[in-house]
Input
Amino acid sequence: MGSFHARTLAALAGVEVAAVADVHEPNANAIANATGARVVDDPFALIADADIDAVLIASPDDTHADLAIAAIDRGLFTLCEKPLATTVDDAYAVVTAEVAAGRRLVQMGFMREFDPAHAQLASELPALGAIVSVRAVHRNANPRPRPIDLIVGQSMVHDVHSVRLITGSEIESVHASTAGVDGSTRHVVVTCELSTGAHATLEFDDCGFAYEVGVEVIAERGDVVTGMPVRPILRRSGSIDVHLGPDWFGWFADAYRFQDQAWISSIRDGRATGPSTWDGFVSQTVVEAILRSIESAETVAIAAHDRPPLYD
Output
């Protein structure tokens, strides 16, 4: 992910990828060679470097909060890959640091806000009246099963944010169940009750056969579904085939580029935009509620939090 961002940023006008910190030295050297950046051993030293104007965090999940707080303390604009943290307390610590700084500095990497298909769906909703339900389907093509905390915290967190983005409402409770093979988790279904009285269903498959994301919204006066990325249709040997690919880069390549360009534009404007630290925190509260529901097999309510005025 970091390599993809580095190459994307290097291709944008007026942007210099100045330094890269990566615990995997061959990867750091490859990025440096591709972008002209220098390699820094310590990410905190990189953040402290006076020549750096902004930082992008695409490190392991459990390092995000500490790195984001260090960047906020230095007053750096930051693009932080999701999740904001791996615990609610750590996520709120980032919120606290940013509120203390007195201005938004962090944009969260919920790139679906910049995805053309999601934007097109959202543009149709005002004419359809009140939202009744949302169905989000997310299929990964991972070669091996992952632990449930990674499935929910790394992947389904995107679907959580999509529901909040599309409906403009908060998730008040969740009920989750899982299915799998040989003791592993493959399929997760989460039913969410929203603050508007609508509901959402999140369906996730971790070891499917192609990468795919789709959203359907049912409203008072109509129904709208996200379209698929444009792909050639191949007719051969009595079949019709549309190649989807096994990973998210092909599906969301444009969204990532639009996201990174929006981040650069916000730095030039001196004001962070897009998904906020608060969005990262709230999404993490839902992630932890989903995990508790899976463990208990019960519906779990999500406590409401007072949003600081900084994020109004």
About this structure: The chain has two domains: 2-110+257-276, 112-249+281-301.
